[in-house]
Design goal:
elongated, D-Maltodextrin-Binding Protein, domain 2, Arc Repressor Mutant, subunit A, about 300 residues, 10 helices, 10-stranded mixed beta sheet, about 25% strand
Length: about 300
């Protein structure tokens, strides 16, 4: 089948009619019918039967759709990549960040960068770990700022800085005079768990398993700044990344690094065949400075 025939077949199969497929593809109904007939002739198969005014896929069509769906998905990805490449030209940088990193260090770096680069624009997108590589492949973004480097994708990375997991709590809720808080000091308190928050959650889960500390989970949050907000409202205590803790710090919330420390890196991730541009490299320097400044608070 030719690519256009695949596209027509896919649209008719999904929408259930020639007219609907024509609207989706922005072409005429006769064109859809003509190309669909060509596809059936070239395959030697009947793909649809008309029943009560609707086109009903045949068994052969069901089998073919399983193969065609993946091809169409790749075509759609290519179109999005082409569109994003076209709109991303010029002095525009697109950066995807984890929600927990978008509260303090990233805004500080962006502000410093823009102050020295008139005429440059930045697009900041929210990224989640499972979506990072797709955004890079489809050119939705130039860089991803994350805690984790995908091990199975052809990506390169720069280390921007380091952070730690820290305990957050209402002042006076936990009595600990030491500069670092042992995990077992959190036992017996209502705990807002973040163990489902991706790589950072995995780090915490592994440490709890190794130390044998049992926490009283009352709320589960996949987002660190939501966990910090819950602490501020009095829902319990929690463990979040140091960047979230510093960015959300107010007189009515306290935080301390843990004992033993649970450190992590912050990475700038990009495709190996599309390394950072000169402009992006300058932004990375500002990011490194911003993360270093946040590190001094610990």
């Amino acid at each position: 089948m030719k690519l256009r025939q695949i596209e027509i077949f896919h649209a008719v199969y999904v929408t259930g009619s020639v007219s609907a497929a024509a609207r989706v593809l922005n072409i005429s109904q006769p064109s859809v019918t003509k190309i669909l007939r060509y596809a059936e002739t070239s395959l030697g198969l009947s793909l649809f039967e008309r029943t009560k005014g609707r086109l009903v896929p045949t068994e052969d069509a069901h089998e073919l759709f399983l193969e065609v769906a993946e091809v169409q998905k790749r075509v759609d990805q290519l179109r999005r990549a082409s569109r994003n490449l076209r709109f991303g030209q010029g002095r525009t940088l697109r950066v995807s960040v984890l929600p927990s990193l978008g509260l303090g260090a990233i805004p500080d770096a962006v502000t410093a960068f823009l102050a020295k680069h008139e005429g440059v624009s930045l697009e900041l997108h929210t990224a989640h770990h499972d979506d990072m590589v797709r955004k890079l492949y489809e050119r939705e973004t130039d860089l991803v700022i994350s805690y984790d480097v995908p091990s199975t994708a052809p990506v390169g990375f720069d280390v921007l800085g380091t952070g730690e997991l820290v305990a957050v709590y209402k002042p006076g809720a936990i009595q600990c005079a030491a500069p670092r808080m042992p995990l077992n000091a959190l036992e017996g308190h209502r705990f807002i768990t973040t163990v489902k928050s991706g790589p950072m959650g995995n780090l915490l889960s592994e440490e709890l398993a190794q130390t044998g500390v049992m926490l009283n989970d009352v709320v589960s949050s996949q987002t660190f700044f939501v966990a910090a907000a819950l602490v501020r409202s009095g829902a319990g205590v929690s463990i979040v990344d140091s960047f979230t803790a510093q960015a959300t710090a107010t007189p009515d919330i306290a935080f301390k690094p843990l004992q033993p420390p649970i450190p992590f890196n912050v990475y700038a991730i990009y495709l190996q065949n599309r390394p950072p541009s000169k402009l992006a490299t300058v932004l990375l320097k500002h990011l490194k400075s911003a993360f270093q400044a946040y590190r001094k608070f610990l």
